[in-house]
Design brief:
Elements: E1 2-7, H1 22-30, E2 40-43, E3 47-49, H2 55-61, E4 71-73, E5 105-109, H3 111-121, H4 125-129, E6 131-135, E7 142-144, E8 147-154, E9 162-169, E10 172-177, H5 185-191, E11 196-202, H6 217-229, E12 233-242, H7 246-249, E13 250-251, E14 254-255, H8 258-265, E15 270-272, E16 278-280
Parallel strand pairs: 3-4, 4-5, 5-6, 10-11, 11-12, 12-15
Antiparallel strand pairs: 1-2, 1-16, 2-3, 7-8, 8-9, 9-10, 13-14
The chain binds zinc ion (ZN) (3 copies).
């Protein structure tokens, strides 16, 4: 499977859209990997994780096509992951021309996500908008094309049941985990003994030690340690820190740039996500 990061920032993007803090001003000057779109990812070319205000631009800039996406999974209903009005442009033939036999876009998410989609697009969403809306409960694997996908509950925006996803295809497993703090016991328990190839962890808080709602890098290390103890980690498992806020990158000792993070995190076995980064296993 190939994981492509479409965006790697927290909700306000990096630099923060309206921010003049020292990190954001420096990020504007540095450009390149320091510029981060709102969060989202693409697996191979047909499974999309979350849909932000930046998804269309990200797909275009990476030479990807939204019409190739067959399945879309949502982590939770915050606007940086669930820009659901964009999906209205899937309606054919008003906004797109597609082959008659093209399947609807299959969408999966928690109750907050599917309730909002059904309210917006109605019970007739498949016929009227080409959107097939499916509630999926946590800890129950479901099949989406060639992928076996398991939503796992995390604590992020209670009382909403935010999900992270275990995604499997051809014997390869990706754990895509944001937005979340250190996982709840039930989720660690579910993952026990399951060997993971790629682990992508929320690192919104960067240098800040935060374990609830979002993680900082110290909490990423804690999750890695627990996954190791639980038999989820192989020699070549890739750990990636992801979903960054400027607040967590504006460290007292100096900016946590891509270059700084890469050097600092390497001994701990972590890499830092950036927009357009791909990892294949
Ligand atoms: Zn977020
Ligand atoms: Zn800022
Ligand atoms: Zn969120």
């Amino acid at each position: 499977m190939k994981l492509t990061y479409l965006g790697t920032a927290a909700a306000e993007a990096v630099p923060g859209m309206f921010c003049e803090c020292s990190f954001c001003e420096n990020a504007r000057k540095r450009g390149g990997k320091e510029l981060r779109r709102r969060s989202g990812a693409l697996i191979d070319d047909d499974l999309l994780i979350d849909f932000s205000a930046d998804t269309n631009t990200a797909m275009l800039s990476l030479g990807k096509r939204l019409s190739d996406v067959k399945n879309l999974i949502f982590t939770h209903s915050h606007s940086d992951h669930f820009c659901y009005r964009e999906l209205g442009f899937r309606r054919a033939p008003a906004f797109c021309i597609l082959p008659e036999d093209r399947e609807p876009l299959h969408i999966y998410g928690n109750g907050n996500v599917t309730d909002a989609l059904l309210k917006e697009y109605g019970e007739n969403a498949v016929k009227a908008h080409g959107l097939d809306i499916n509630f999926v409960p946590p800890y129950v694997p479901f099949q989406a094309g060639e992928y076996t996908i398991t939503p796992l509950s995390v604590v992020h925006c209670l009382p909403e049941d935010a999900y992270i996803y275990l995604i499997e295809k051809n014997g390869v497993r990706i754990l895509y985990a944001n937005d979340t703090g250190v996982f709840p016991e039930k989720t660690f328990e579910y993952l026990k003994g399951i060997k993971l190839d790629i682990v992508s962890l929320d690192c919104t808080m960067g240098f800040i030690s935060n374990e609830v709602g979002h993680m900082g890098f110290p909490a990423n290390l804690k999750v890695k340690k627990i996954l190791e103890e639980n038999g989820c980690v192989k020699k070549d498992t890739v750990f990636i820190s992801h979903h960054f806020s400027h607040n967590g990158l504006r460290a007292p000792e100096g900016d946590w740039t891509y270059e700084y993070f890469t050097q600092m995190a390497a001994p701990h076995g972590f890499i830092m996500s950036y927009d357009g980064m791909t990892v294949e296993r």
